[in-house]
Automatic annotation (TrEMBL):
Assembly behavior: In plastids the minimal PEP RNA polymerase catalytic core is composed of four subunits: alpha, beta, beta', and beta''. When a (nuclear-encoded) sigma factor is associated with the core the holoenzyme is formed, which can initiate transcription.
Protein name per UniProt: DNA-directed RNA polymerase subunit alpha
Sample GO molecular function, one term: DNA binding
Any GO CC annotation of this UniProt entry: DNA-directed RNA polymerase complex
UniProt-listed Enzyme Commission number(s): 2.7.7.6
Localization per record: Plastid, Chloroplast
Keywords: Chloroplast, DNA-directed RNA polymerase, Nucleotidyltransferase, Plastid, Transcription, Transferase
Gene name per UniProt: rpoA
Function as written in the Swiss-Prot or TrEMBL entry: DNA-dependent RNA polymerase catalyzes the transcription of DNA into RNA using the four ribonucleoside triphosphates as substrates.
Listed InterPro entries: DNA-dir_RNA_pol_insert, DNA-dir_RNA_pol_RpoA/D/Rpb3, DNA-dir_RpoA, RBP11-like, RNAP_asu_C, RNApol_insert_sf
Comment text on domains: The N-terminal domain is essential for RNAP assembly and basal transcription, whereas the C-terminal domain is involved in interaction with transcriptional regulators and with upstream promoter elements.
Catalytic activity: RNA(n) + a ribonucleoside 5'-triphosphate = RNA(n+1) + diphosphate
Length: 328
């Protein structure tokens, strides 16, 4: 009887994807389970993950549009069925995907008559359109539609201030919706396991295709862990409660002597999903593992390029570390 109780208490929770489907290019669904959990844990995790999925997952969208020879958002364009405002709303609905930060530029240069869709947008290689059939405008006459767009990656919802832009230059801001997760639900199933009540968490995720639900779950979990890292070291620091310290500085330079590198996992770093996945494939799980590789060693891995190396170096240096030089 004692052996059974011990085996239950040390059982590690495991997650599983029990359903995954693509209802359309702009609607993906995933259903996941996590079990076994002790009584109350499923609700704690469910609440935290729902908020993290809705608020902490990054997305990519168009944030600014520039028209040629247009100065009023509500004006009509002769020869085009849609008004300027209608075109802006259509551009706002476009779902994009990018692993690169910063402002990227795209353009549309179409001579009508033609129905303009998202496949007519010229984009940099780092940006991908999820649904190339999304409608933008219908050019009825032999005129040119010339548009330039700014594309950014971010988090949450940002309401643009029109006063920061000059419409006389044909520049119009678009409210940014950086939220690839459309909706999240969770439910809890309780059951008896021996003498202990255990729980199973069911998590349902709907995304717009910018990320699939599995990727969104990974990113939300990683970002949630990153938010909690400061609490792991509060007992070792003399911090004035009124002071704000950036997360990257919560690990001081003396960390090299005080903290075992094996206790710091790459999950705690804000790495892109592609880089994280390739490091895990190489069995690089901890900071200690990563510091055994030089930049040249990492470049030999598939899909690890100079941009990936720079991202890794920036993160390591913010924690007071650096990759070793090539031993060859």
């Amino acid at each position: 009887m004692i052996k059974n109780e011990i085996s239950v208490s040390i059982q590690t929770p495991q997650w599983k994807c029990v359903e995954s489907r693509e209802d359309s290019k702009r609607l993906h669904y995933g259903r996941f389970t996590l079990s076994p959990l002790r009584k109350g844990q499923a609700n704690t995790i469910g609440i935290a993950m729902r908020r993290a999925l809705l608020e902490e997952v990054e997305g990519t969208c168009i944030t600014r549009v520039k028209f040629q020879n247009i100065t009023n958002e509500y004006s009509a364009i002769i020869g085009i069925e849609e008004s300027v405002h209608d075109i802006l709303m259509n551009l706002k609905e476009i779902i994009l995907r990018s692993d690169v930060y910063g402002i990227r530029e795209g353009s549309i240069h179409i001579i009508g008559p033609k129905k303009v869709t998202t496949q007519d947008i010229i984009l940099p290689p780092s940006v991908r359109i999820i649904d190339t059939t999304q409608h933008i405008a219908n050019i009825k006459n032999s005129i040119t539609l010339d548009i330039r767009v700014n594309i950014e990656k971010g988090r949450g919802y940002i309401i643009q201030n029109p006063n920061h832009f000059n419409s006389k230059d044909g520049i119009f801001p678009i409210d940014a919706i950086f939220m690839p997760v459309r909706n999240v639900n969770f439910s809890i199933h309780s059951y008896w396991n021996g003498n202990e009540i255990q729980e199973m968490l069911f998590l349902e995720i709907w995304t717009n295709g910018g990320l699939v639900p599995r990727e969104a779950l990974y990113e939300a979990s990683r970002n949630l862990i990153h938010l909690l890292i400061p609490f792991m070291r509060t007992e070792e620091q003399d911090i004035d409660e009124t002071d704000y310290i950036p997360p990257a500085l919560l690990f001081p330079g003396r960390m090299k002597e005080d903290v075992l590198k094996d206790d710091i996992f790459i999950d705690q770093f804000n790495l892109s999903y592609r880089i994280y996945k390739n490091l895990k494939k190489a069995n690089i799980n901890t900071l200690s593992d990563l510091l055994n590789y030089s930049p040249e060693d990492l470049m030999k891995m598939k899909y690890i390029d100079k941009h990936s190396i720079q991202q890794i170096l920036d993160i390591l240096r913010s924690f007071g570390f650096d990759l070793p030089l090539n031993r060859n």
